[in-house]
Every structure is written in C-alpha cells, then in structure tokens.
Amino acid sequence: MPRETRESAALFERARAVTPGGVNSPVRAFNAVGGTPRFIASARGAWLTDVDGHEYVDLICSWGPMLLGHAHPEVEAAVREAIARGTSYGTPTRPEVELAEEIVARTPVERVRFVSSGTEATMSAIRLARGFTGRDLVVKFAGCYHGHVDALLASAGSGLATFAVPGTPGVPASSTELTLVLPYNDRAAVEKVFAEHGDRIACLVTEASPGNMGVVPPEPGFNRFLAETCRQHGALFVSDEVMTGFRVSREGQWGLDGKTEGWRPDLVTFGKVMGGGFPAAAFGGRADVMHQLAPEGPVYQAGTLSGNPIATTAGLTTLRLATDAVYAHLHHVADTIKAATSEALGAAGVPHVVQATGTMFSVFFTDAGPDGAVRDFDDAQRTDSAAYAAFFHAMLEAGVHLPPSAYEAWFVSAAHDDRAVQTVLDALPAAARAAAAA
Ligand code: PMP
C-alpha cells in the first residue's frame, strides 16, 4: 500500500488555484519526478513530517541551509529571544556585526555586505565588479546556477565562447549579450575567451564547486587557474559559495583549495547555511573593491531587510555551533550514504557516478564520461532522469526525501544520526532495483 497523500494532494490543488504550479520555487513541484509534492507540516533534527503524518529522513535540508538539522534547540532559543526584542528596525544592529566578523574570520573576504537571497548576492557582486572595473562583460560556466539574475540566466549559444542567449523568456537579449558562457573545467575555453575579450571582462563568476548540475568539483588547480587568469587581465574572480559556503567545510570550498594553494577570490557570495534557515545572504571580498559600494563609494546597493536581526541571529548561532566536530560528522554521514548508494546501484546494475566536494555530494544516474568523471554540464546531462524518478519515489515510499530532481546535491546535517542513516541504508536496495527496472 503506497503512503496516503490525501492532505498533500488537497493542499496542492488549493495551491495550484492561487500560485503558478502550486509552488514558490519551481523544483518543489515534482515536475522532474512526477507525483504530488509532500507538504511539510514540521521538521525536527533529520526528519520531516508531512501533513498526512508521514515521516521522512530529509536529504534536502532546505537545499542546503539546515547544516545543524531542523529546529536545533540553541538556534531556536536564540531566534525566540531575538524575536521578543522586535523583528526589524531598519537600523544597524549587533548581530549583523557579529555575523560579519564570523564570516570575515572564516573566509577570504575582508568586508561583507548582507542581502536577503543568494540571487541578490550574485546580482550585487556583478554590479560591483562592473562598477569597480568599468567593464561590462561577464564570464560564467554552463551548468552553474547563480540565482535568477537576468544576466546569469543565460545559456550558451551555438559553438564555444559565443555571447549567450537568454535561458528564459522575459530576459532581454541585451541582458545576456554581455555574458559569455563556457564549458566547466575547460581551461582552453577560458584562455581563448580572455585572449579575445580580456580587456572588456569585468568578472568571471563560478560556483566554487558546482552543485547545481549535480556535484561537479573543479579539477585540481582549476579555481587557482581562474583566479590567476582574471588577475592577468584585470578582471575580478567572483566565487559563488552560496551553496558550498560553510557547508563543504568550515571555510567553504576556499578552505579546500584556495587556502592551501595560497590564493583568494576577489569577491565571494554566500547564502544558505549563513542564514540558518532564514532569508540571509551576503557578498564580500577585497576591501578596495567593497569600498566602492554605497555609502562609501558610487556603486549603489541596498535592502530594507538586509542584515535582518532575526536572520543574522539564526545564522550567527548556526555558524558558532558549526564546529570541526560537526564537519567530521557530516563527512562520516556523507561517506556512509555515498558508499551504500553506490553499492546498492552497483548490485542492481544501474550505471552511476558518485561525486563529492567536502561534505557535499550527489549521485549521477549515468555512465562516467570519457575520463571516468562527470566534469561538465554536457556529461551531467547524460543522466537517466527516468531511472532517477523511479529511485526517488521508491526512496520516498520508504521514508527518505531526496531532492526531486536528478541534478541536485544531496544534503545531510549534524542531526543525521544512526537511526536516520539506517533508514536511508535500508531503503536503498529496493530503490536501486526500481531504478534498474525503469
Ligand atoms: N548561487 C548558488 C550556487 C546557488 O546554489 C543558489 C541557490 N540554489 C543561488 C546562488 C541563489 O540563491 P537564492 O535561491 O537564495 O536566491
């Protein structure tokens, strides 16, 4: 007997009558996997409870933010105390200073400015890069997502290194014709585009380790190569750590490459974990670049709820609790789930590739590319979406909520304890067989 979804189905029907697709962010609608999205009524630790009363081990973690798990008692207490003091003043506050100090202490940025979403962070970073350099062109990689910023909702035109075409109706060609889209991990393409347009490029923006086409880590030295190429041409290197920041390691992806290799990005964007489950995001970087921002400099940027005291309190409390022990636990949980998933899929004869950066990982339902890895968007797109859909629904039935899309990272938290992990392990063999039969 499949799990009863009557309440979710009823809410979904009501939702669709008043909201496009019934959801406030497209991937939640289950379009990629089919079926009714589960409406979640509450969450605690590693578990979600839906409106029909079913429990699921959560491998979405709000698409990254819930590093400590849901309703962490100390985060909850800090937020309750903060709310009792009022929720927004439109003035500077203490928590935003302390969160900025924590971010500056952990990451390569010297100054940081808060915003409310990752989209705003990358949009603002690009404006600042253009304002600082006096140049207009932006370079990005196919398969990297930086939020729904017009200039970055671009797909590659035909051929390599052509100016981009809008990836969605509603974005004027004039917004994306200043964007160049390259294949990820492709040094030759980067060299070519800088050789041709280097003196017009304001910045190159990349996910620090892409997670939005599944996890496709930078090949060793790739980020350093990007940083050096930008420097040689007077362009800024913008590292988008919205997903990886404070997630893949204490210091984000930079802690896994830049710090050991001795280089820094010029600008970095953050979101997700640093908001502790509230709408908070940030961009930061070199002091001389950040000083170009209003009110110190001429580049305008602002926000009514930017640095909101509740969101920054949640983020600050989360980061203070995100100790080395937390990251060690996340590694352990991720490694256990990765190994068991690979074993189950292998036993069922399902082609797959597991890739990770730090504690963030994903499973591609595809054969490895020519070099044994998924290294760019073309490789990632060979994923067998039907096999993933069958796998996803079998896992859901067994009480494990994966991301409802084959192109997403799987997220774990400090609250994923033995019981939660065992629930995942128990569900895998049958789900792998369902994928094999799809
Ligand atoms: N950059 C990256 C790397 C992201 O993963 C996301 C969101 N998934 C964003 C930017 C946009 O963040 P938001 O959804 O908060 O606007």
UniProtKB/TrEMBL annotation:
<dbReference type="GO" id="GO:0008483">
    <property type="term" value="F:transaminase activity"/>
</dbReference>
<keyword id="KW-0413">Isomerase</keyword>
<dbReference type="GO" id="GO:0030170">
    <property type="term" value="F:pyridoxal phosphate binding"/>
</dbReference>
<keyword id="KW-0963">Cytoplasm</keyword>
<dbReference type="GO" id="GO:0042286">
    <property type="term" value="F:glutamate-1-semialdehyde 2,1-aminomutase activity"/>
</dbReference>
<dbReference type="GO" id="GO:0005737">
    <property type="term" value="C:cytoplasm"/>
</dbReference>
<feature type="modified residue" description="N6-(pyridoxal phosphate)lysine">
    <location>
        <position position="272"/>
    </location>
</feature>
<keyword id="KW-0627">Porphyrin biosynthesis</keyword>
<dbReference type="InterPro" id="IPR015424">
    <property type="entry name" value="PyrdxlP-dep_Trfase"/>
</dbReference>
<dbReference type="InterPro" id="IPR015421">
    <property type="entry name" value="PyrdxlP-dep_Trfase_major"/>
</dbReference>
<protein>
    <recommendedName>
        <fullName>Glutamate-1-semialdehyde 2,1-aminomutase</fullName>
        <ecNumber>5.4.3.8</ecNumber>
    </recommendedName>
</protein>
<dbReference type="InterPro" id="IPR049704">
    <property type="entry name" value="Aminotrans_3_PPA_site"/>
</dbReference>
<comment type="subunit">
    <text>Homodimer.</text>
</comment>
<comment type="similarity">
    <text>Belongs to the class-III pyridoxal-phosphate-dependent aminotransferase family. HemL subfamily.</text>
</comment>
<comment type="pathway">
    <text>Porphyrin-containing compound metabolism; protoporphyrin-IX biosynthesis; 5-aminolevulinate from L-glutamyl-tRNA(Glu): step 2/2.</text>
</comment>
<dbReference type="GO" id="GO:0006782">
    <property type="term" value="P:protoporphyrinogen IX biosynthetic process"/>
</dbReference>
<dbReference type="InterPro" id="IPR004639">
    <property type="entry name" value="4pyrrol_synth_GluAld_NH2Trfase"/>
</dbReference>
<dbReference type="InterPro" id="IPR015422">
    <property type="entry name" value="PyrdxlP-dep_Trfase_small"/>
</dbReference>
<dbReference type="Pfam" id="PF00202">
    <property type="entry name" value="Aminotran_3"/>
</dbReference>
<dbReference type="InterPro" id="IPR005814">
    <property type="entry name" value="Aminotrans_3"/>
</dbReference>
<keyword id="KW-0663">Pyridoxal phosphate</keyword>
